[in-house]
Design a protein that fits this description.
Elements: H1 4-7, H2 20-32, E1 36-39, H3 46-57, E2 61-65, H4 72-76, E3 77-79, H5 81-90, E4 102-104, H6 106-112, E5 118-122, H7 131-134, H8 136-141, E6 143-145, E7 152-154, E8 160-165, H9 173-176, E9 180-183, H10 189-199, H11 205-219, H12 230-243, H13 264-275
Length: 293
């Protein structure tokens, strides 16, 4: 029978509070040697997860941040034709040695490493529709061929691949079948208190209460186009502390709103609310039963 302790390779870190279901998903991906696909709204710690998994496992981390213009091959390798052309024109370098102009990308470096790595493919849904499908073979077989030289790069040790998505675009079924999936739910009140404590360990209890009451109330406002995220909450608390704000100072209003809301429509909606005489909550009871069970 397998020792359960061998399965539990990741249990969170001091700097990253992970739910039990997220810990299970990470360990399932490690056990199955499959990519871990993490979805969730922006600011819920998807990218940070890869950093802390790497820290917990003691593995180096390779990051591949995807853009709208990213192509699958860039993560494997890039053939620097411009440098080779310049060397040919100006007589620098050995232009006959093509291998010296091949530069491995993040995935290529993770495959080529002599020890296990964590590979982050960040925000895969930013790329075009075919991008995930273009990686299927490489993720399955952990190998690829450098077409210019015929060299094959084969993973000596299979890396742990963590892929993040903001759910802006559906991913192909064939790609999803190859992944362990987890959706990071937005933290509830108790978990958010733990997360804040990691970043602001000495925050006064009364101030923390006022901050979280205002924050969760904002997230309940349907007229907001973009709800404030966990990362924005952490930034807002930093501003409050540096400005010397107390719990009493924020009891009746929300200062430094620009740290929480990131477009003019949302700030205008809050301004209009204030002009209509709307009252901001000052205690958990004002938020209703959902936050008072």
């Amino acid at each position: 029978m397998t020792d359960p302790n061998e399965f539990l390779q990741f249990e969170g870190t001091d700097g990253y509070i992970a739910s039990s279901s997220l810990i299970d998903a990470v360990n399932a991906a490690i056990a199955l040697q499959r990519p871990l696909l993490i979805k969730g709204e922006p600011g819920t710690g998807k990218t940070l997860l890869a950093e802390h998994v790497a820290e917990s496992l003691g593995h180096p981390l390779e990051k591949w941040h995807i853009k709208s213009t990213s192509k699958a091959q860039e993560g494997l390798y890039v053939y620097d034709t411009v440098q080779r052309l310049n060397d040919a024109r100006f007589g620098d370098g050995n232009v006959s040695e093509i291998r010296s102009y091949i530069k491995l990308g993040a995935m290529g470096r993770a495959f080529n490493a002599d020890k296990p790595h964590v590979l982050l493919i960040d925000e895969i849904d930013k790329a075009d529709l075919e991008f995930p499908n273009d990686l299927l073979r490489e993720l399955d077989e952990m190998r690829f061929t450098v077409m210019e030289t015929g060299d094959e790069v084969v993973a000596k040790i299979r890396p742990l691949v963590i892929i993040t998505s903001n759910n802006e675009r559906e991913l192909p079924d064939a790609f999803l079948r190859r992944c362990v999936f987890h959706f990071i739910d937005f933290p509830d009140r108790d978990l958010m208190q733990q997360i804040v404590a990691v970043h602001h360990p000495h925050l006064e209890t009364k101030l923390l209460d006022q901050v979280l009451v205002k924050f969760f109330w904002l997230r309940e406002q349907n007229q907001l186009r973009k709800k404030p995220s966990t990362s924005e909450l952490i930034d807002w608390i930093s501003v409050l502390l540096r400005s010397g704000m107390t719990a009493d100072d924020i009891e009746q209003h929300i200062p430094f709103l620009g740290a929480l809301l990131k477009n003019e429509q949302d700030t205008e909606a809050l301004d209009e609310y204030s002009e209509r005489g709307g009252q901001y909550p000052s205690e958990w009871a004002d938020l209703g039963p959902r936050y008072n069970n």
